[in-house]
UniProtKB/TrEMBL annotation:
Domain HNH nuclease: 174-236
Species the sequence originates in: Sphingobacterium paludis
InterPro entries in alphabetical order: HNH, HNH_nuc
Pfam family, one: HNH
Entry keywords, A to Z: Endonuclease, Hydrolase, Nuclease
UniProt key word Hydrolase: yes
GO MF terms held by the record: endonuclease activity; nucleic acid binding; zinc ion binding
Name of protein: Putative restriction endonuclease
Signal peptide annotation: none
Coiled-coil residue spans: none
Keyword Nuclease (UniProt): yes
Length: 260
């Protein structure tokens, strides 16, 4: 599977909006297919005035996302395009372009002299996984992946090693948790149906109060006492920091304090 690295430098002729839209020339159009995963990259810092807007002065990767809609730049005389960026997740810390003196990206022999001039570069799954792993990104299960069915308790925790340790969520538990807790975020009280109408009906994330990745292996999970429902924003905040998972109480306190 092919993924992309997209360069977004401090000074640029392109009208990029980080995590929202990416502006690029027509020669890269064939690479921007909807759903293609990508990694953001910045070159070496040249202008020191950008120091507080970067994670490091060194060339580095700083976030991930996916390609959404692609549309023509109607104001361009050179057939340029925009790509919508969806599911953007910034890195908490920079992933520098080299590890132990070796570039994380594999540079083809034919491009050794000018590889870094390309603003859009193709990478394979192995390279993508390597960079994401170094960033400490752990996969947050989205609503479509969380499944459905019916039960009250079940056993979970069959570990698999990918580029991070992930655990199989029993699809039976997700539906039961929603039946018990509903689809209104238990932290911020956001209700997708009230905001988006029928389009938002039933949409919510399910969060395990006791992290399944604590190394304790398989255990019994109770949908009522071990699981809560959160909107994607609150769910992201729970998992935002590497090696730290906010408790429901801590998350609720952050929301209360922000409203003061």
């Amino acid at each position: 599977m092919i993924h992309l690295v997209i360069a977004e430098n401090d000074h640029s002729q392109w009208n990029d909006v980080t995590g929202k839209t990416y502006h690029f020339p027509k020669r890269y159009l064939k690479h921007f297919q909807r759903g293609t995963r990508l990694i953001y990259y910045k070159g070496k810092m040249i202008d020191k005035s950008f120091a507080n807007r970067r994670l490091t002065k060194e060339p580095h990767y700083f976030g991930i996302g996916e390609v959404g809609e692609v549309f023509e730049d109607v104001n361009s005389l050179k057939d340029d395009y925009y790509a919508q960026i969806i599911n953007f997740t910034p890195f908490d810390e920079a992933v520098v372009s080299k590890k132990d003196g070796v570039y994380l990206e594999t540079i083809p022999e034919a491009k050794k002299k000018n590889y870094w001039r390309d603003g859009v570069r193709l990478i394979n799954q192995v390279t993508y996984n390597k960079i994401v792993s170094l960033a400490g990104i752990t996969k947050i299960i989205n609503d479509a992946e969380q499944g459905s069915e019916y039960a009250y308790t079940s056993r979970e925790g069959n570990s698999k090693q990918v580029f991070v340790t992930k655990y199989e969520r029993d699809i039976v538990l997700r539906k039961r948790a929603i039946e018990i807790h509903g689809t209104t975020c238990m932290a911020c009280e956001f209700d997708f149906k009230k905001t988006y109408g029928d389009w938002g009906t039933g949409f919510i994330h399910v969060h395990h109060i006791k992290p399944l990745s604590d190394g304790k292996g398989e255990r019994t999970v109770n949908a009522e006492t071990d699981m809560i429902v959160l909107c994607p924003n609150c769910h992201s905040m729970v998992h935002r920091r590497k090696n730290t998972t906010l408790s429901f109480q801590e998350l609720s306190e952050l929301i209360r304090n922000a409203k003061k």
